[in-house]
Design a protein that fits this description.
globular; Nucleotidyltransferase, domain 5; binds D-xylulose; alpha+beta; binds adenosine-5'-diphosphate; 2 domains; single chain; 510 residues
């Protein structure tokens, strides 16, 4: 047996996946849904909301509790002593602020040991869009949009960690001064497993507006533009394959891990999915239909988006990856589903019953402030679309999302010739047909919709020396045989024109 554990701490849940590289099989999967398992934290879909829709936080102590809960399931499901290495991925950009990091003691729970350690009780997460002022200040200090994008791989974005840290520094200077360690969700969880603060990898580090994208080191001017003394509070940037140490004795004693089990640096969920989808060579494109929709690809050289909408992150496979994040992904599809009282079956039926192009109906589904295009005031806009027509609204939301993804990814250069798709909504064939038609290329599905956890398990194996990427991914990241969804050419022709109308509507309303 050659077991490796991958964890994914996402917005709504913490998932675990154990793979066996000897038999090339996923041998165990488990998941803990934050809001269901820990209602006492008062989260909705894993998030804390306030009266201001721009402010979205989550309690880090809930993630700590979830780690114990998911490891209990792993312990019941596999022989934990056989796990050779563990790694993970986290929702990107979210940050955790600690006054101190405790020496872990197996006779007490993680929760009780961490409870007094936070200098900020709640963590701003990627859905927060309350830092426009700080974005502008940092962008100006770095010489404007283009200079910021070239320096850090992205323009400043409200959810990125640098602007979030600056807001905390400005609004709660005493708590900021008390903060000894600032972690990302990924590096915080990795620190728990290792029993000490560990580094941030260039995949997740690039989502902070603080990392020099070429050198993959902290960017001195960006640190200075963000907050006083920031360099001393951040851990080092560490390559994604870094062995942070052996797993902390806490987990050996409490769950039965082998004392020699390696604890590997974590990355962001999107960089992790790049591995979990097998995008280890440049030029491959994938779309994840999760809480948000993200479009990403692997890239040999670092090329940034001149429009400042897309991002460049480090890829755990070595080079770079691009990423464009559309916040109103499943969030928007679910809003329509709920508005018309449908289930996913009814939603899919509506897509079947309505024609490609939807008789020219258009929707801009900005239920939440949108990241791409940049729209801070939420609003749902309709054109040639009757709000009382449930089926047409189902088609309109999906067409809008696919057309927006096509339009805002054109800067990447070449149109994709094949798309790999993952995330919860990739189970929906009707949605994938619209994707194939709008992009006019085949779409391939995967067995596991949890590519981030799979990527984490594969990264654990890679960092522990189990093999080269091309060998390791074999048998794990092959698309489901016969799952290919082909574009219908008459539909593709309709969307070629409709994308232009969509662009005009989008520009008029943003
Ligand atoms: P994340 O990892 O971002 O938390 P997931 O990738 O697990 O999210 O996706 C979860 C989402 O998938 C759910 O919120 C739901 O909207 C969506 N989903 C699940 N099943 C279907 C389906 N059959 N059709 C469309 N969407 C679905
Ligand atoms: C990426 C982003 C989201 C989160 C979701 O930039 O903000 O995809 O990573 O977990």
């Amino acid at each position: 047996m050659s077991l490796y554990l991958g964890l994914d701490s996402s917005t709504q849940s913490l998932s675990a996946m154990v793979i066996d590289t000897a038999t090339r099989a996923i041998v165990f999967e488990a998941s803990v849904n934050f809001s269901e398992a820990f209602p006492e934290y008062g989260t909705q879909s894993g998030t804390l909301r306030s009266d201001d829709p721009a402010v979205v936080h989550a309690p880090p102590l809930m993630w700590v509790e979830a780690l114990e809960a998911v490891l209990l399931q792993v312990k019941d499901g596999v022989d934990v002593s056989q796990i050779k290495a563990v790694s993970g991925s986290g929702q990107q950009h979210g940050s955790v602020y600690l006054k101190s990091f405790p020496e872990l003691d197996a006779s007490q729970s993680l929760k009780s040991q961490l409870a007094g350690c936070f200098s900020r009780e709640t963590s701003p997460i990627w859905m927060d869009s309350s830092t426009s002022k700080q974005c502008e200040e940092i962008r100006e200090a770095l010489g404007g949009m283009q200079a910021t994008t070239e320096a850090t791989g992205s323009n400043t974005f409200e959810r990125f960690t640098g602007p979030q840290i600056r807001k905390f520094y400005q609004e709660e200077p005493e708590a900021y001064a008390e903060t000894k360690h600032i972690a990302l969700v990924s590096s915080f969880m990795a620190s728990l497993l290792t029993g000490k603060p560990v580094g941030i990898d260039p995949g997740d580090g690039a989502g902070m507006n603080l990392m020099d994208i070429q050198a993959k080191q902290w960017h001195a001017s960006a640190l200075e533009a963000t907050a006083e003394d920031l360099g001393s509070k951040l851990p080092p940037l560490s390559p994604s394959h870094t062995v942070a140490g052996n797993i902390a004795s806490y987990f050996v004693e409490k769950y039965g891990f082998d004392p020699g089990c390696k604890s590997i640096v974590w990355t962001g969920d999107n960089p992790s999915s790049v591995i979990g989808l097998g995008l280890v060579a440049p030029g491959m494109t994938a779309i994840s239909l999760g809480t948000s929709d993200t479009l990403f690809g692997s890239m040999g050289k670092c090329a940034t988006d001149p429009n400042g909408e897309g991002h460049v992150f480090g890829s755990p496979a070595g080079d770079y990856m691009t990423l464009i994040c559309f916040k109103n992904g499943s969030l928007a599809r679910e809003a329509i589903l709920n508005q018309y009282g449908l289930g996913w079956e009814g939603f899919s039926k509506s897509l079947d019953e309505t024609p490609a192009g939807n008789h020219g109906a258009l929707m801009l589904p900005w239920f939440e402030p949108e990241i791409v295009p940049h729209v801070l005031t939420p609003g749902v806009h309709r054109q040639n679309l009757d709000e009382s027509d449930a089926a047409a609204n189902c088609r309109a939301v999906v067409e809008a999302q696919m057309m927006s993804m096509k339009l805002h990814s054109e800067w990447m250069g070449e149109a994709p010739t094949k798309i790999f798709v993952t995330g919860g909504a990739s189970a929906n064939e009707q949605i994938l047909q619209v994707m194939a038609d709008v992009f006019d290329c085949p779409v391939h599905r995967f067995e596991s919709t949890n590519s981030a956890a799979l990527g984490a398990a594969l990264r654990a194996a890679h960092a522990a020396g189990a093999g080269e990427w091309s060998d390791l991914i074999h048998g794990f990241t092959d698309p489901v045989a016969g799952s290919e969804i082909l574009p219908k050419h008459e539909h593709a022709a309709i969307y070629r024109d409709k994308v232009k109308a969509y662009q005009v509507f989008e520009q008029a309303m943003r």
